[in-house]
Structure formats: C-alpha cells, structure tokens
Amino acid sequence: MSRWSAINRLGPYTLAALIWRAKKRCTWCGQEVAKGRYAIDHVVPRALGGADVCTNLVLACGECNVARSDSPGVPPALLARIEAAGRTEAECWDEVTRQLEIPVGRGTWANTCARILAKQWFGNAITKDLANARSYKARVAQEQKRVPF
Asked: Alpha-carbon distance 149 to 83, whole Å?
C-alpha cells in the first residue's frame, strides 16, 4: 500500500489553505486539529477513483480518517465518533459542502489567507522548497553560461 503524502503532492501552501478552509477543525467530529496531528481525507476515496485535487479533499483528525477508511459515505465507526462529538451526519456533509465551495490552490484567496499558517506548520518544507528552487536556478544559470549560441 502506498502512503499518500499531502505535503509532497499539494505543497505546503495549498495544504495550509485546506487546513485554513476547515478552520483547523476535523470535518467529521469537529474537534480542533493540532499541528502534526492532521489527516487529509478524500471525499471520494482514492480506492474508489477519487482524485488528489482540492475539490475532493477535506481536513480530518487521524482517528476520523482511519474510521472512515475507504468508505464513500459514513461507516458505523465514523458515525459513532460523529455522534459522540454531538454532531449529526447531515451537519458533517454540510461542512464538506462548505469547504469544497471555497477554492484552494495557487493564486486563490484561501492560499493568501493561509500563508502565516503555512509558515507556522510547514516552515521546514517551505525552507527546503526554496533551497531546492535556488539550487535549480543556479544549475540552470551555469548550464546557460556553458552553452554557446
């Protein structure tokens, strides 16, 4: 089984925008999700053909993400967590809809609003990305100097 890594697939700014869009709360149980304790849940699971796109992704706590598993809906284990948190399944689907109506991605308002969150939660990844970009630009510049035109 492959491990899906949101930070690698989406990048730190888009991932932070997903977290911001969810108000740092699990879509299912409504509990606040702490730095390093989050999961990104596919509304349509990958196992059922769901894509790794922001219009198919919501924030979840690790426990709710595991309880949901590859189910397209709300399995009994997740429903028990939802009800224990004092929520209804309908409220959860309303929250899914609310989140998915907010565009996320490069150049969106959500990404702009989430910049501080991205630096707080994913500063190391941002620093690494910037270092890689600078290194790449330096290599390209060196190559361009060597190629005669």
From this structure: 69
How do residues 8-22 score in pLDDT, each as one tens digit? 788 888 999 999 999
Classify 38 as helix, strand or coil.
strand
Residue in the block written with tokens 């730095």: 35
* DSSP line for 49-101: T--SSGGGEEEEEHHHHHHHTT-SS--HHHHHHHHHTT--HHHHHHHHHHHHT
38-42 and 57-61: which strand pairing? antiparallel
How far apart CA 4 and CA 6 sit, in angstroms, is 6
